[in-house]
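[step 3/7] fold_predict: job queued, chain A
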Amino acid sequence: MRILQRYISIEVMSAVLFVLVAFLALFGFFDLMGELPEVGRGGYRLQHAFLYVLLGLPGYIYELMPIAALIGTIYALASFASRSEFTIMRASGMSTGMAGLALAKIGLVFVFLTFLFGEFIAPAASEMAQTYKLQARGASISQEFRSGLWAKDVIRRNGVTGEQIGTRFINVREVKPNGQLIGVRLYEFDPTLRLTAIIRADQAVFSGANTWRLMQVTENLFAGNVADNSAAVQSRTLASRDLVTEVTPDILSVLFADPDRMSAIDLSAYTRHLAENKQSTARYELAFWKKVVYPFAVLVMMALALPFAYLHFRAGGLSLKIFIGIMIGVAFQLLNSLFSHVGLLNTWPAVSTAVLPSALFLLLAIGSLLWVQRH
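[step 4/7] structure written:
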């Protein structure tokens, strides 16, 4: 069985990697065509477009790994069936369980690679790509609203520890690629939601330890109840001052990032931040659980490929089987995306929404395997 395992592993891995490289070449070409209209704007040149597309490929590796595993495994197993090799393997004593175990061992390698790219390589490469493109064009990070970027923060007695003594809303007009903030406004409220301070700063630079250094600061401090116009207002101008807040550059980068391209660690941290500020966490909770579950979709896809080994070549050509595999992979991606949107609209539990597509396709794989064994 060890020799068979090695032989199957080589054939399946070679086929999966070939399919993955083909997909990457195709998607990379389309991305490059999409970047060509941007060439010439600012300092953005063709070499910048090539590097930007190249840095986007790790994200595609993560997204396409289950489909590549499905198509590559179908190709390898269908080739075994067409050459009667799988029949000989079965005659030599290889049961369905043994074949499934052999594929599972291969699948675990791809599960690890998918996790590695999704958690570490792809998020870092995606962030580098965006920063590199902005620097090449000499642009700032785009804002969510016309008034700039908004974030909510909790004011605590001892900086980022201790009891909550107020709430702060942060408005940033621009975020530079190097993390510098331009046009900062802070609106601070006490526990009864009375306005206590409005702080403006021309620039802000992160100095570490949850601390921002604000430059050219104007403070308007309110005492009493502003709403009844009986408050005393104290204004002062400072060359600089420190701001201690839970909103760090990592949090700000999350606000501009696609949750599906973020790492599970960043998603978990930002979800906690939203929960502490009593904001909706549904979108990021779903993205977190999808990030946890998605690598195991590789095993589900390879289980779906196993029944194709039991179909003789005369039951359908190799190209037909590959086409069916492509359709199954597309259906999985569409269903995964559909469940994400429906789950958010209907406030389904994030874990169930993330697991359900893979569970349905696993049941389909088991049903297909039982059917081909009976027939």
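[step 5/7] annotate
The radius of gyration is 27 Å.
The chain has a mean pLDDT of 87.
exit 0
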